[in-house]
Amino acid sequence: MKLLVPIKRVPDPYSKIRLSADAAGIDATGLKYEINPFDEIAVEEALRIGEKLSCEIAVVSIGDAACEEQLRKALAMGAHRAIRVDCNETLDSLGVAKILAKVFEREKPDLVLMGKQAIDDDCNQAGQMLAGMLNLPQATFASAISIVGGIARVTRETDEGQETLELKLPAVVTADLRLNEPRYVALPGIIKARSKPIETLSLSELNVSAECRVRTTSLSAPPPRAAGRKVANVDELLSALRSERGLKL
Amino acid sequence: MNPKAAAALPKGGGFLFACENEPFTPEQFGADERLMADTAFQFAKNEVLPLLDRLDAQEEGLMPGLIKQACELGFGGPDTPEKYGGLGLSKAVATRILEKLSLNGSFSTTIGVHQGVAQLPIVLFGSEEQRMRYLPRITSGEIMPAYALSEPNNGTDALSVASRAALRNGAYRLSGTKMWISNAKWASLFTVFAKVDGERFSAFLVERDSPGLEVSREEHKMGLKGSSTARLILEDAVVPQANLLYLEGEGHRVALNTLNIGRCKIGAMALGQMRSALHAAAKYSKERKQFGRTIASFGLVRQKLAEMAARMFAAESVLYRTVALIDSAFSAREASGDEYDETRKACEEFQIECSLTKVLTTEALAFAVDEALQIHGGYGFTEEFPIARLYRDARVMRIYEGTNEINRLFAFERVMKRGLLDALRDGAPTCPAHEYLILAARNLDASKPLGQELTACMSDLTLLTYAQQSANLRAERMRRENVQFADFGVDAAKQFEASATGWAAARCAEALARMGVKQNVSLSSAGQPRDVADAVLESDGYPL
Questions:
Q1: How far is A185 from chain B (nearest CA, A)?
Q2: Which CATH superfamily does the domain covering B145-249 fall into?
């Protein structure tokens, strides 16, 4: 069995994000980068599946050489090999899905396991688009996965409660927060990862072009949170919301 | 190695008259080394910090469980050779890992002793058979080792131990009392120092279940309450002859070289706790409001934060420069030579730097926990905030692994014994503190005994030179290579230069007065202090 885990390099969610001086992007000074946390959960899940079944686990990332740092981390966690699709362009979700579809055709994995969304742009689209493009069954927001005899049984978290689906492999599954807690990257794993391969593919080798139909027109920081105040009771709260916020309650 | 390459290697005490071209700095760590450090940091933050109250209450099994877990991740012996179950990493990387594990004193001491003084005697001086027998079990966390040198009446005067050993019927019999044994409660193997026939100072590997060995009650300590410190009582304890470590009569080499490397481990442990102190201080000063403003906006609070960060920057610069020098000495060992002799030479080469690193890092920590507590006001004096524990835990660091007094005396005595004084007198200054050191050295009458007070003055000047030079070289390199937080590095080095120059001037004046030299020491070359408080507040602590 073969698992393909796409991962994205994103700013560390615990670092302070500031806009660059021209507000066209974020200020990268002093910024740490990490594997997108949902993707890291997908890597962890792939490793756990691999511990039960015999699997080859490949991770793939799209970006410049810098994202090899995140690929190495996934290799250190236990993935077997890595692919970097060399690309310096900004992509939208559809552009990402198109590239991943080409990687899928090349790798022919039984399961694509990826984060439900990236914490930098919060699009939550690439997995769905990829499944649609490849005409594969999909399960999003997975909180439990088990694989038996070519079928993936996936529990998803929905607003109404949990839903369990059975998907015929190959399929695309996107990971939610409660799927698992990623392991610590053990030091011997980091040393082993030094000799694991990272293959670099160009867009032309994949016969695909970088595509971005969405243009960012402006970025702004969230307004600083105003100081709160205490109200004595619910009535006072309701009247404050009516008079100060204009809410019809 | 050819003689030319040997000549190009850095030598111990080299900073006294020149700078190496490019001292190692933490900015040089590669991506996978940073990942290792990050695993260490995450482990300390997520697994250790939530348990501090329970660890301090000595909850049964809790600390050994953490150590076992840490060893499973590879923290059992980062710089121990792979052959013996370690990871074979450089001292520099191992130091970074220990630093990042050291957010709390008790855990830091326990894992630091495990990786350091308790394991090093076997790594450095064990026979192949002894190494294979014990090290894989130590690095995997199956057993914990401990180091038993001090005695009730022999602390600083360590080599005058009263413990005795005698060889009878193919086994040594050891008798005596050992004190301040870290990790004693959990240890299965003790490196015990005793004099064979009352004369030949020697080291022995003593297993816990040896007949005649008893671990006495825990000391009731002021801090590090989550760590174990107990006495070891040996009454005719039976130790197989094969457990003599290295040679009879050569125990001082085992003891002193272990401590030498151990002093750098202390540096890592101090730096990790400094990070916690700075974080606590920055966080509190942004939360606490007085007179309608956060106290972070007040000049005197900002000054404290800036000075803490500057001293931490200098301490960090010194620590990583020193451990990388030790790495260079170890990698220069000649394969053809006597392994133990070569190892001893490698350990000894930078003993001046090791002692200075121990003093500098632990005193920077002492300053940091004291000022961080002060920023907390009355709340700092309660157990409501983490700073009280950090303050207590830090105190012992100026005492163990050689008191800072003995390390001060040792460092400058080594400068004299190594014959570095003449080169120092003729040298050109590399930083303002160095000018004062050279001035004092030129007036020093080396034919007379200096006395401890004057030696300490000279040692402080040596220390400040090493620190100022290291911080400046690092800042310069950060600027040149335009690394992240290069501005902070440059400003922190400037801030340190300003305060250290003032201190150096005072120590120089005292040195000259003690020599009876009448000369005014003017504070001419002090740098301009820079305010690095903004960077500290912005990063919720030490930015690097």
A1: 6
A2: Butyryl-CoA Dehydrogenase, subunit A, domain 2 (2.40.110.10)
